[in-house]
Amino acid sequence: MLENLVYFDNAATTRTDTKVLEAMLPYLGASYGNASAKYSIGFEARKAVNTAREQVAALIGAYPDEIYFTSGATESNNIALRHQEGALITSEAEHPSVLNTARYCQSKGRAAAYIKPDMSGRIGADNLKKAFEGTAAGRTGMGLVSLMYVNNELGNVYPISELADTAHMHGWIFHTDAVQALGHMEIDVKKSGIDMLSASAHKLYGPKGIGLLYVRRGIKKEGLLKGGSQERGMRPGTENAAGIAGFGKACEIAKESMKENAVREKEIAGFLKEYILKNIPDSVQNGEGERILNFSFRGINGTSLALRLDMEGICVSTGSACSLGTEEISHVLRSIGLDETLAEGSLRISIGKYNTLDEAEYAAKKISELVSELRALTV
Ligand code: PMP
To answer: How far is CA 245 from CA 56, 195, 346, 349, in A?
Structure first.
């Protein structure tokens, strides 16, 4: 079935690499020991966890002891925001796992400010400076800035080093949700001045349900859960050795191949962008993504279009997968001020390393045909 699918929803999840599955299998079978146990079969799992910690750390230029494995970025974002002190500055275009956590912190009495991106989805150091100067939260003496590396709906890449510098100039901590960046572009937490970083394995051809939180040495560490001493007390509970081993392998593979993949993905995205904007009247690109592309087609319902494309074996998404089915206009499209009729007709096409130009041609033609068909129905 997989072979026939034209899969363009890599921002939601990626196909798990065979090598990743192979790296996981022992810990789902014969090597079933608890990674914290004091006998050989446990040591095997412990070794896999240690190796993975090194592989993950190497991909972002961190020390292995700065990596904590979690169940995914939702959990990592919660830990990052909830257990630091002071005010919060984030943006209106963040993933719900940051936005709703910030709102929760606000409900518990912490001040928060939300930066609005411009019409192209951009957020720069100037916006952050304004948030420090012009909001009550920003004028509080200490706090945490949380701004994502790459927007999961629009694909915009944010100037992380400049944003981190600005946060530090004010004496604040800088956290980034790097879910859509890890394994797709070079990340160097030290060079960029990132204090905390969240990511999930399933966006870089690893398994679902495993993620990481990087916390720089010297930053206050407190987890959400109270329990045993796993992950040095930051994330108690028996280690998901298979998931962790798979995550490590995915990072190792990404380190070797992400540069090359990015070139090919950009070419495929470039083709799609040009074809769609040239051949489909009343179509626009929302944001400035180069791997994650977001389009709007006036007069079209994005969900209807995605469902029709599915019948042709093409997987794409409308807005973020997390809001699919709720029929609500995406908060990200709202944040860039897109008018409602355009926001309703939005489609996200996200490219991954398994995509080909042939697939892009097939998908672009089908999208064009179906948009005409759906428009004809509504006239
Ligand atoms: N942040 C971003 C930018 C995401 O795209 C996602 C997943 N869609 C998450 C956080 C949450 O990750 P997870 O579902 O693995 O917890």
So the answer is: 10, 25, 37, 29
Residue 1 has pLDDT above 70, yes or no: no
- Our answer on whether the CB atom of 152 is closer than 6 Å to any ligand 1 atom is yes
pTM confidence score: 0.96
134-148 tens-digit pLDDT: 999 999 989 999 999
Which residues touch 267 (CB under 8 Å, ≥6 apart)? 357
Nearest alpha-carbon partner for 246 in 8, 11, 27: 27
322 part of the active site: yes
Query: What percent of the chain lies above the pLDDT cut of 90?
Result: 93
Mutate to test the pocket of ligand 1, among 179, 291, 317, 348 (most ligand atoms within 8 A of CB): 179
Q: Which domains does the chain have, with CATH numbers?
A: 6-14+257-378 (3.90.1150.10), 18-254 (3.40.640.10)
How many degrees, rounded to 5, is the angle at CA 373 between CA 369 and CA 379? 145
| 316 within 8 A of 263, measured Cβ to Cβ | no
In sequence order, the 6+-apart residues with CB closer than 8 A to the CB of 204 are 14, 182, 183, 184, 250, 251, 254
Active-site entry in 105, 251, 315, 322: 322
Nearest-atom number in ligand 1 for the CA of 211 is 15
- Whether the CB-CB separation of 93 and 118 falls below 8 Å is answered with no
9 CB within 6 A, ligand 1: no
Measured from the Cα of 94, ligand 1's closest atom is: 3
Using pLDDT thresholds of 50, 70 and 90, give the confidence band for residue 3: low
Which run of H or E residues covers position 375?
Answer: helix 357-378
Examine the pLDDT at 103 and tell me if it is beyond 70.
yes
- Closest Cα to atom 7, ligand 1: which residue? 12
Q: How far is the CA of 280 from the centre of ligand 1 (A)?
A: 31
Rounded CA-CA distance 205/318 in Å is: 21
Cα 10 from Cα 378, distance rounded (Å): 31
